[in-house]
Specification:
With 121 residues, the protein is of the alpha+beta class. It contains three helices and five strands, in the order ααβαββββ.
Amino acid sequence: MVAAFARHDRDAYFDTFAPDCSFMFYNAPTFLENRAAYEAEWDLWSKDGFHVLGCESIGATVTMASDTVGIFTHTVRTTLAEGDGSIITGERETIVFALRDGRWVGVHEHLSPDPTYNNDL
């Protein structure tokens, strides 16, 4: 998932989420109730120049809630295209995964700013 996002591979990235996955992003105007809503938001961002140049996962952990539910948490540093340059964002992310039809897929994602990250450094 992180590798697909880091290379801006839209199809491979979205394939890691269940169709009914929900998304709570601090930088999206609304709660995204399913993967299709996130895909539409991604497409809007892309029209405005959104493009992932890289993504680093830091301190990743997985906690198993059951045999079929896992909770993935990490800090991410994402490099995004912005105008003629780029910007690095610092965020914290939690993704709940469920085992469905023999495959682990994201069923909920929550993204928030990392309060310890200073982009000016």
